[in-house]
Amino acid sequence: MSSNSFGKLFTVTTFGESHGPAIGCVIDGCPPGLAISEEEFRQDLDRRATGKSRHTSQRREADEVEILSGVYEGKTTGTPMALLIRNTDQRSKDYGDIASTFRPGHADYTYWQKYGIRDPRGGGRSSARETTMRVAAAVVAKKWLAERHGVRVRGYLAQLGNMAPAGFDWDAVGRNPFFWPCEGQVRELEKAMDALRKSGDSVGARVTVVAEGVPPGWGEPVYGKLDGDLAAALMSINAVKGVEIGDGFAAVEQRGSEHRDEMHLDGFTSNHAGGILGGISTGQAVVASIALKPTSSILIPGRSINLAGEPVDVVTKGRHDPCVGIRATPIAEAMMALVLMDHALRHRAQCGDVGVVAPRIP
Ligand code: EPS
After folding, report:
1. How far is the CA of 118 from the centre of ligand 1 (A)?
2. Distance from residue 320's CA to the centre of ligand 1 (Å)
3. How far is the C-alpha of 223 from the C-alpha of 269, rounded, in Å?
4. Contact criterion met (CB below 8 Å) for 297 and 238
5. CA distance linking residue 98 with residue 314, whole number of Å
């Protein structure tokens, strides 16, 4: 089976299942000389992890990264970096019933139809546990992008069900378990999530991710557009059903005179394009949003079928997230960073000699 790798020059391959002994990734193409230690993975892995608040899955994983290769005396060597995280808190008995039924709205059914065999424990390969390794790989990418280009990638929860932020403060995002940019609403979110959890149901969410400091020129027309690669990378995150770049679908109702970002020698007047024109970065912030569906593993019985082809009611036991979007912010940041890293190297390979071309809008 292929398609567990992505990127052309900064290539990430992930492997592992939610209830297997370990998950891991191999990063190939990391530039040599980047200082990196196992401790540096801690912060982002903790931001993404389960069991950090009552509003997410209560599975408790240590998520300790072991660097198996590609680093010598604290620096990347340019050879493949293998990262490993051992699974320690699997509770596979929760999935006893799922082995012979299909959760409505879950990949259970399509994996079965495709392969004729599946690991039902914790969703196996289709589990959001896999995103741990994306976040780990992106720690390397984020560090290189920041050091080499001053790029900063950060995200926030832009909608939870029908609730939208009433204000915006980047500093607030890191101070609550929702990655919510308006501190005054956190209590309200907690109440909504408590009620949702008690009801046994789930809800969708929207996450926005912003990369500042991206220079103009990254992205390759026509089949390697920066927005095309970003859309594919973001869409590959579990539960994602929609991706927008910049104004996205709001552009449908806009006029050209409104949507275009006017240029002055001292800056752009707006950023409806989300920092990408013709598949190439403009130098403005790259902005993307994702829509995440409500978790399909819920306590409310749903009609389905079993392996014997009989109608059944399915109730999912286990330690599930009532809103997967709550933990998706670091994952979306990771996918943005990995795509940018790949494109930074691709731009350097083909156009590194072009240098800065005048005029340039700051
Ligand atoms: C998940 C189901 C839960 C989550 C898991 C994602 O797993 P389990 O049923 O095994 O407890 O805890 O998330 C993680 C373990 C993680 O690290 O993100 C699912 O069905 O996708």
Report:
1. 16
2. 6
3. 29
4. no
5. 8
- Ligand 1 near 129 CB (within 6 A): yes
| Strand locations in the chain (E) | 5-6, 11-16, 22-28, 66-67, 71-72, 75-76, 81-86, 152-160, 205-212, 240-245, 263-264, 267-268, 276-277, 280-281, 286-292, 302-305, 311-314
Rg, the chain, Cα only: 21
Q: State the pLDDT at residue 97.
A: 85
50 lines ligand 1 (CB under 6 A): yes
Residues of the chain short of pLDDT 70, as ranges, are 1
Question: In the chain, where are the structural domains located?
Answer: 92-351
Report the residue count for the chain: 362
Measured in degrees and rounded to the nearest 5, phi and psi for residue 156 equal: -160, 160
Query: For residue 19, which atom of ligand 1 is closest to its CA?
Result: 10
Tell me the best of 17, 18, 319, 326 to mutate to test the pocket of ligand 1, counting ligand atoms within 8 Å of each CB and taking the most.
Answer: 18
DSSP structural state of residue 220: B
Tokens of 198: 């008690």
Q: Is-contact 204 161, C-beta < 8 A?
A: yes
HSE, CB side, 13 Å, CA atoms: give it for residue 272: 16
Letter string b/e over residues 127-142, b meaning 16 or more CB atoms within 10 A of that residue's CB? bbbbbbbbbbbbbbbb
Q: Tokens for 119? A: 């690991």
What count of Cα atoms within 13 Å lies in the side-chain half-sphere of residue 301?
Answer: 5
**119, 107 contact by CB (below 8 A):** no
Please give the Cα distance from 282 to 284 (Å, whole number): 5
Q: What is the CA angle 281-286-271, rounded to 5?
A: 90
State the pLDDT at residue 317.
85
The Cα–Cα gap between 59 and 353 comes to 49
By CB neighbour count within 10 A (0-12 exposed, 13-18 middle, 19+ buried), where does 188 fall?
Answer: middle
Does the CB atom of residue 128 touch ligand 1 within 6 A? yes
- What's the CATH architecture for 92-351? 4-Layer Sandwich (3.60)
DSSP-derived secondary structure letter, 166: S
Q: Read off the tokens for 96.
A: 């006893």
Per-residue pLDDT at 267: 95
- pTM, two decimal places: 0.98
